Fold this sequence. Notes:
alpha+beta
Amino acid sequence: MHFVGLSTGALVATVAGVFLATALLYVLKLRRRPVAVPFSPIWQRVLRDKDASELFSRLRSLLSLLLQLVIAGLVIAALADPRPAAGAGEGRSVVVLVDTSASMQATDVLPSRIDVAKKKAAELVSGLGSADRMLVAKMDASVAPLTTMTGEPADLRDGILRLEATETHADVRRALAFALDALRGAPHPEIVVVSDGAGFTKEDTEGLDLGAVKVSFAPIGASGRNVAVTGFSVRRYPLDASRYEVLLEVTNTNDAPADVELSLLGDGEVVDVTRLSLKPNERLPRVYGDLGGASRKLEARIKLTSAKDELPADDRAYALMPERRRARVQVVTKGNTYLEAALLLDEYLDVTTVGPAEYRADGPFDVTIFDGVGGALPEHGGALYLDMPAEGGPLKLGKPLTDFGFDSWDRKSPILRFMAVENVQVARGHALVPEASDHVVGASESGPILVSGRRDARPFVALGFDPRNSDLVLRVAWPLFVLNVIHTFAEEDASYLSAYRTGEPWKLPVPGEGTVAWVKDPGGVVHEVPVQDGRASLFGERAGFYELSLAEGAPGTLFAANLSDPAESRIEPGKSFSVGKTAAGKVEGFSVGVRREIWVYLVAAAVLLSVLEWFSYHRRITV
């Protein structure tokens, strides 16, 4: 037997001091108790008590003192927390990894998988031995301990209560690596994974070395019927920023066909409702074109029409349209009616026209258009050179060309988006001489005639002929070309994200200067996040709309986040789990019930003896 609460020396000193004090106090209190009597016959009883056997009186006194000493001894022993010597240093060290990924929100078991997992973890705590220690950690896209390695059931249960399912994927490899680090050098190490096992693969744990660590698996879940929105993005049309198109992807994660109803909402109002029939395990993309009626927020909702969807977390997706900001355009020209007409088609352009002598490279413009004239690349924004001059441009001119057109072109280039250039006829112009890092967007048989590139990180597009010397200005391709170039420079079409993905670190541009920012999540909770190099760092765990601002409570910029993870949406629970080539076993050795700690019984005995002593005192058995 060894004592955890008190050392042996402290225990002996405490016992001696308490026993001596109890005996002294008891001796000082040995006197007859005053008894008020209403008439004289009572005195006869008192006289008879006085004549009673002295031996019996001494026995009663000794019995009373003995009870007091036993009660005091029991309390001191409980404080010392005695443990069997055979169990010293032989307790288990257990790390419990509780899956809190999106699939744990499934309702195939009631009330949900995460609630069942929390109950299972609490049962493990109740089944700990007196020398066992445990650490509880959550496992989703990140891993975080909720307790220390402790043997205190109250602390472990408090950690379990803080478990909450997020809307991210499960990174089981990272969680197991954390558990192995936490158990390094610990006696009898064991890992218990409490999870539905949905989406776990052998590749997730390949190469992990368990060593002597035992791994057990507690499966959660019963079925896995689910459909999900696994893709959602939006973009505005170049010629009409009030119109937009949406790309959606819907996934049936089941082995049976599914009928679903898909709703699209813009700024909270229903834009479209469609019924779809999905084949088993089908991923169906769907494009909504030429939509209107929404200015900023979009939301997609899906539901099964003939059965219950068991995971609501992926039934919604969110997206934000690019803000319709006005692009500042500077036109350096001697006069060009066709160019002026093309620029009038977009109401979100602020156009400033200057002559060649008035051009300044440091102007605050998003795009500068050089119409048949040269000029140094602007310090801000991009540049479009029409009829690239021999001097004052980013490229050199090649040989003169006559009667030519576009014989080849980059069909994926955003500069030529929605354009048909194969029939454009040009009377005269020049071939361009690109550098190695430049991109030839269009070319004739005799050389490049449309080139894009960068000089000192400043973008440009150069056209090798005057559009007025061709039939391009008579085609719808002409305004499309001008506006495509402007939108490529002024708007971040290539990098704009309609929505971020949960379970990943986000670097969000901050609208201003500061070292901290505030983010309001979809649940309305405000978090303080650090800002470095003009970007706020945040790890997103919830799908929905967020608001980022530099002052708490102030209006900010919006952004959206989605789960968009087909693997996490496949919620069919796994019945087994392997780490590399080692299969996880069943959870064993956790007998649910009262923890067999001796101090609990010592306290109970002390309370029981106190009740008996009180009863005997009032019955005149003890004094």
